[in-house]
Design goal:
Number of strands: 5
Order of helices and strands: HHEHHEEEE
CATH architecture: Orthogonal Bundle
Distance between the termini: 51 Å
Strand content: 5-15%
CATH topology: Arc Repressor Mutant, subunit A
Structural class: mainly alpha
CATH class: Mainly Alpha
Helix content: 40-55%
Bound molecules: zinc ion
Number of helices: 4
Largest sheet: 3 strands, antiparallel
Strand order of the largest sheet: 1-5-2
């Protein structure tokens, strides 16, 4: 009986692990605390991914993974992740239609690479 039980569970664990190979491994508990810290920060201030990474001491890449989750998780609670679009410092082009949260590498208008990163807030 027991043996029959264990095998399918192990199968499930293995399949969930193999379907998400790209996300950085963060223990579940730490993950939650960090996300709450990020939400609390963004309810008070408008910050870039770099600012957040300095505050909670994780990489910008990890911040962006959290922000993606915050974007979907806050939806049903009447809260929204408010994104101030990235801006080209050279020509002032605003990346309004951009869906991705990371900083764009290049301006599509003037090809400038001096991009002001997007800013995030929760409201
Ligand atoms: Zn530009």
């Amino acid at each position: 009986m027991l043996r029959l039980y264990i095998i399918p569970i192990a199968g499930i664990i293995k399949s969930t692990m193999t379907t998400r190979p790209k996300k950085p491994f963060i223990p579940a508990e730490q993950h939650d605390t960090l996300r709450h810290q990020i939400i609390a920060l963004l309810e008070r201030e408008t910050l870039s991914a770099r600012d957040i990474s300095g505050e909670v001491r994780i990489t910008e890449k990890e911040v962006l993974v959290h922000l993606e989750h915050v974007r979907t998780a806050t939806h049903g609670k009447g809260l929204h992740l408010i994104i101030t679009p990235a801006v080209c410092r050279k020509c002032g082009f605003r990346f309004k239609k951009r869906e991705r949260l990371n900083k764009p590498g290049k301006c599509p208008v003037c090809q400038g690479e001096q991009i002001e990163p997007p800013l995030f807030a929760i409201g």
